[in-house]
């Protein structure tokens, strides 16, 4: 069964810092990996989707990498802003399953 | 981009009553929809996979008689929480996969917050 782990569980940084969020998964036979943002009490906002054949995806200040063989993905946020404060969730979709498995998330706080 | 809606966005009900939550894909057809539950400060947990025209597939530990799922059309799936209890209070999120896409990306609804008093 696929297990997804996110480290750290919480992170607080001053505005302007670059930061990295980590995601690991136990079954490397994934179909894709997706990073989401969730604000308190709200639904999910999709940030980046990486197919299993891809190594990274970029959108603005966000860059996500995927190392399927080691079961790891990172989300890099450049020049963080207070508006980036949210919980970031990593989710993987495997070939064997038809669904997505989520990590517990990293709660990010960017202080002005 | 693909849009998924949920209705209602929040609902309060009394213990013992039933509540129906709707999930709609607005601009695409979805043969497969998923229902997740999220308790406070926890991640999303898959409850069931909803397949159009057939029975839903439930995850281990999820009572199929308590959480009734109906996927009667290619754009609508419903989740009915029967005989709701306070421990069923949670944030319920659905997602849908575009039948035409090979990418298998899931599009998520905004969620429904259920409070059972």
What percent of residues of chain A adopt helix (DSSP H or I)?
under 10%
Task: Give the helix level of chain B as a range of percent.
Answer: under 10%
How many helices of chain A in DSSP terms? 0
Pattern of helices and strands of chain B = EEEEEEEEEEE
Count of individual beta strands of chain B: 11
Order of helices and strands of chain A: EEEEEEEEEEE
Name the pair of protein chains with the most residues at their interface, and give those residue counts: A-B, 22 and 22 residues
User: How would you state the average pLDDT of chain B, rounded?
Assistant: 92
End-to-end separation of chain B in angstroms reads 37 Å
Mean pLDDT of chain A: 93
Binned strand content of chain B = over 45%
Taking the alpha carbons of the first and last residues of chain A, their distance comes to 41 Å
Stretches with pLDDT under 50, minimum 5 residues of chain B: none
Total number of beta strands of chain A = 11
Would you summarize the structure shown here?
Chain A is mainly β and 112 residues long.
Keywords:
heterodimer; A: 112 residues; mainly beta; six-stranded mixed beta sheet; five-stranded antiparallel beta sheet; 11 strands; B: 117 residues; seven-stranded mixed beta sheet; four-stranded antiparallel beta sheet
Summarize the SSE layout with pairings.
The complex is a heterodimer of chains A (112) and B (117).
Chain A: E1 4-7, E2 10-14, E3 19-25, E4 30-38, E5 44-51, E6 56-59, E7 62-67, E8 72-77, E9 86-94, E10 100-102, E11 106-111
Parallel strand pairs in A: 2-11
Antiparallel strand pairs in A: 1-3, 3-8, 4-5, 4-9, 6-7, 7-8, 9-10, 9-11
Chain B: E1 4-7, E2 10-13, E3 19-25, E4 32-38, E5 45-51, E6 57-58, E7 67-73, E8 76-81, E9 90-97, E10 106-108, E11 112-116
Parallel strand pairs in B: 2-11
Antiparallel strand pairs in B: 1-3, 3-8, 4-5, 4-9, 5-6, 7-8, 9-10, 9-11
């Amino acid at each position: 069964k696929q297990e997804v782990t996110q480290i750290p569980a919480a992170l607080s940084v001053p505005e302007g810092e670059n930061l990295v969020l980590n995601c690991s998964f136990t079954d490397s036979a994934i179909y894709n990996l997706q990073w989401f943002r969730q604000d308190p009490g709200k639904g999910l906002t999709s940030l980046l989707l990486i197919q299993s054949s891809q190594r990274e995806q970029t959108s603005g200040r966000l860059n996500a990498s995927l190392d399927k063989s080691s079961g790891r993905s990172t989300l890099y946020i450049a020049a963080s802003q207070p508006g980036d404060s949210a919980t970031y969730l990593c989710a993987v979709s495997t070939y064997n399953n038809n669904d997505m498995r989520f990590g517990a998330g990293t709660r990010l706080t960017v202080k002005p | 981009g693909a849009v998924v809606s949920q209705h209602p966005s929040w609902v309060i009900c009394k213990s013992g009553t039933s509540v129906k939550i709707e999930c709609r894909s607005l601009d695409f057809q979805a043969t497969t929809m998923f229902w997740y539950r999220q308790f406070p400060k926890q991640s999303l947990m898959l409850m069931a996979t909803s397949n159009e025209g057939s029975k839903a597939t439930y995850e281990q530990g999820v009572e199929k008689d308590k959480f009734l799922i109906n996927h009667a059309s290619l754009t609508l799936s419903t989740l009915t929480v029967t005989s709701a209890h306070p421990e069923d209070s949670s944030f319920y999120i659905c997602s849908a996969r575009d039948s035409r896409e090979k990418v298998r990306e899931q599009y998520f609804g905004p969620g429904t917050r259920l409070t059972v008093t």
